[in-house]
Amino acid sequence: MRIAFMGTPDFAVPALDALADAGHEITAVYCQPPRPAGRGKAPRPSPVQVRAEDLGLEVRYPMSLREAKAQADFAALDLDAAVVAAYGLILPVPVLEAPRLGCFNIHASLLPRWRGAAPIIRAILAGDDNTGITIMQMEKGLDTGPMLATVETSIDAKTGGELTDELAKKGAALMVEILSDLSSYPANAQPADGVTYAAKIEKAEARLDFQTGAEQIERQIRAFNPVPGAFFEVTGERIRVLNSEIVQETGEPGIVTDENLTIACSDAAIRPTLVQRAGRGVMSAAELLRGFAIAPGTRVG
Question: Is there a domain that residue 150 lies in?
Answer without folding.
Answer: yes
